């Protein structure tokens, strides 16, 4: 029964908006906002101090939300509620949250799904922030308003203070992670920076990848070579690991290595440490 009343009230609200529609065929909310607040064929429903100035735009509740900008042709934008969100580009959507913004530009099709204080620059079309806090899709920390240059398809999947500044980059969670080259990826962790093309940081803390197509796991590693992989399993308090000196390397840095066949079979396992690694080196040299 409560559902019935809810939908009945919602239907009456929309119908009343139609009844009071002004001459440009816009639908106005129950707030009786001035005609300049709602663009042609746009809807502002419920909430407070919401504005939809573009054509075919929609604001559904909340407070101080904005959708579109009619005189610049930023139409078909949606703000789904929340507080002080602004969907400024055409075909852009902000589903909720607070203080989220998609910049006013000619680029299109970006989405922020919630969270707080997230932003997508107008020169990054078809980009997505799925939530989190203080995440940015922009040009090196600046909200770029370049109307000719375009960097398509950045994605930030939650987390905090993450940034994507190049096309097809991805940052998935974590804190203070940044991707700066094409198709680079930062999978979580803290304070990781990916500067190489199609390079990947997998978790960890304070890693820096400058080589293209390289991968890093662990902590405090620098990878300057291309097509290389570094795994640093040492304690975070130790010095930064910078071991690559050529392309195509695979390096694992750890205090010890255990090789084992099967589970709970000590007879089929052995451990290599700094005390006995020379035995392995000697055996490999003799085998060669």
Folded structure, characterized:
There is one protein chain. The chain has 288 residues and is of the alpha/beta class. The chain is built from 2 helices and 25 strands. The strands form 3 sheets. A 13-stranded parallel sheet has the order 1-2-4-6-8-10-12-14-16-18-20-22-23. A 10-stranded parallel sheet has the order 3-5-7-9-11-13-15-17-19-21, with no helix packed on it. A hairpin with an 8-residue loop joins strand 24 and strand 25. The longest helix has 18 residues. The chain is elongated, with a radius of gyration of 26 Å. It starts with a helix and ends with a helix.
Layout of strands and helices, then pairs:
Elements lengths: L1 H18 L23 E3 L12 E3 L5 E2 L10 E2 L6 E2 L5 E2 L6 E2 L8 E2 L6 E2 L7 E2 L6 E2 L17 E2 L6 E2 L5 E2 L6 E2 L5 E3 L5 E2 L5 E6 L2 E2 L5 E5 L2 E2 L5 E4 L17 E4 L3 E4 L8 E4 L4 H11 L1
Parallel strand pairs: 1-2, 2-4, 3-5, 4-6, 5-7, 6-8, 7-9, 8-10, 9-11, 10-12, 11-13, 12-14, 13-15, 14-16, 15-17, 16-18, 17-19, 18-20, 19-21, 20-22, 22-23
Antiparallel strand pairs: 24-25
**Which percent bin holds the helix content?**
10-25%
The share of residues in extended strands comes to 15-25%
Q: How large is the radius of gyration?
A: 26 Å
Taking strands numbered 1, 2, ... along the chain, how are they ordered across the largest sheet?
A: 1-2-4-6-8-10-12-14-16-18-20-22-23
Basic shape = elongated
Low-confidence stretches: 12-36
- Individual helix count: 2
Mean pLDDT: 84
Report, as a whole number of angstroms, the end-to-end distance.
82 Å
InterPro entries: Serralysin-like_metalloprot_C
